[in-house]
């Protein structure tokens, strides 16, 4: 059994034992690094996560991994850097040891390829553009800018480009905005900025993920500006990804925004039902499992937001079926997902705006209007966030209900509130209270009108 297969199967079971918030905090972005001689090495996001898992959960994880592997296994946690474990730190900027240096391939995940990327209406243009770039770097679209919400497959596409181009003699570097920043900080600290620039400015293909991380970091932006210019002038391919389009960046200098738009900007939207079903079938087949059509459709109907959650739902279903000996039926899927899914709400935009306006003491006219003060912008973004969670409306439809706003504005608002929900206790409490009101009242009282 491969390391990734073993860990993914084990994760499905582990997720059943944990509170959702614990799983999301400590394990949702973990990654199998290697599996040899009964030892599974797992990369986690931080030293704190490593210690928490080793001290509080090791017994359960050890038993589950051993059961899945059908032999006694040990599990070792190490801190990873953007998918690269810290044991590689002796190499310049964490180059992966499992990729031969002569391949010219750096930090690219070999499991993310074009042949296992499911294409649908929501990602067809982005996929075609990435294929064109991979086939002919720096001649099709340069730069290529891919944007969309979390968990929709942007990172997969960047890695797929890297894997495709790696068949040639091109030198490739995949890096996140955070890692680029960390590499620069380390270079400044160790007086190796010349080596840093030589690494980033002499490659043939730069794949920069989560470029929005550079916003607000003046020194990093400045360094990237010159890196971008050098690569572009030398006819090297640049591919960027972000959670929003360049036009929606706040706090980014115009010289960056204009450069990001020099080539092609394309988006990835949440997958439609047929694409979600195809993804589930493909992921199950990778494990040698034939997923019944009715189970496939049920899971695809229940999880609509992003691919990452869809795969998590499949892990749960398969783990419960294997662990308890249940058949793969809709009933098993319902049982596996019962505490994961958000209850369905029979609410609409008018009801959401009514309750939010009352709770935050602003008018519906303010929410749909043009004013952008924080006292109004936050409730407006809360409406966007709740509309995505509690209705079937798309980003453009939500924007239309909010005074004709562009769908990218809605995407930004949803992402901002989602981020604040995790770290702002007061706002989280307010949002949960609004949801309780909406869930318990089919017809809220009319909101107060603007003065």
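Sequence proposed for the structure above (451 residues):
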């Amino acid at each position: 059994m491969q390391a990734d297969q073993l860990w993914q199967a084990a994760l499905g079971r582990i997720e059943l034992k944990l509170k959702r918030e614990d799983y999301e905090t400590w394990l949702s972005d973990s990654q199998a690094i290697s599996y040899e001689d009964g030892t599974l090495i797992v990369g986690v996001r931080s030293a704190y996560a490593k210690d928490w898992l080793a001290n509080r959960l090791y017994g359960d994880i050890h038993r589950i991994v051993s059961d899945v592997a059908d032999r006694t296994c040990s599990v070792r946690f190490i801190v990873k850097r953007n998918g690269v474990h810290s044991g590689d730190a002796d190499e310049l900027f964490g180059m992966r040891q499992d990729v031969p240096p002569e391949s010219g391939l750096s930090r690219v995940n070999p499991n993310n390829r074009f042949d296992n990327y499911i294409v649908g209406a929501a990602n067809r243009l982005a996929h075609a553009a990435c294929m064109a770039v991979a086939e002919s770097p720096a001649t099709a679209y340069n730069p290529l800018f891919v944007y969309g919400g979390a968990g929709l497959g942007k990172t997969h596409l960047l890695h797929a480009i890297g894997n495709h181009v790696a068949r040639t003699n091109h030198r490739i570097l995949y890096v996140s905005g955070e890692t680029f920043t960390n590499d620069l900080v380390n270079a400044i600290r160790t007086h190796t900025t010349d080596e840093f620039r030589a690494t980033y400015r002499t490659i043939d293909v730069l794949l920069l993920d989560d470029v929005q991380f550079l916003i607000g970091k003046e020194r990093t932006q400045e360094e990237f500006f010159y890196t971008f210019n050098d690569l572009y002038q030398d006819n090297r391919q640049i591919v960027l990804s972000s959670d929003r389009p360049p036009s929606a960046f706040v706090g980014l200098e115009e010289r960056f925004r204009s450069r990001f738009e020099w080539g092609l900007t394309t988006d990835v939207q949440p997958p439609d039902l047929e694409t979600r079903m195809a993804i589930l079938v493909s992921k199950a087949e990778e494990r040698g499992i034939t997923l019944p059509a009715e189970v496939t459709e049920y899971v695809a109907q229940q999880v609509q937001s992003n691919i990452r959650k869809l795969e998590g739902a499949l892990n749960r279903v398969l783990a419960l079926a294997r662990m308890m000996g249940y058949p793969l039926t809709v009933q098993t899927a319902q049982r596996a997902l019962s505490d994961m899914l958000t209850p369905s709400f029979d609410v609409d935009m008018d009801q959401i705006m009514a309750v939010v306006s009352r709770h935050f003491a602003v008018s519906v006219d303010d929410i749909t209007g043009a004013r952008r003060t924080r006292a109004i912008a936050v409730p407006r973004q809360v409406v966007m966030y709740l509309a995505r969670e509690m209705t079937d409306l798309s980003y453009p439809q939500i924007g239309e209900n909010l005074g004709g706003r562009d769908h990218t504005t809605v995407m930004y608002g949803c992402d901002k509130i989602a981020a604040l929900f995790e770290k702002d206790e007061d706002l989280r409490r307010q949002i949960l209270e609004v949801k309780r009101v909406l869930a318990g009242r089919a017809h809220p009282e009319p909101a107060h009108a603007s003065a």
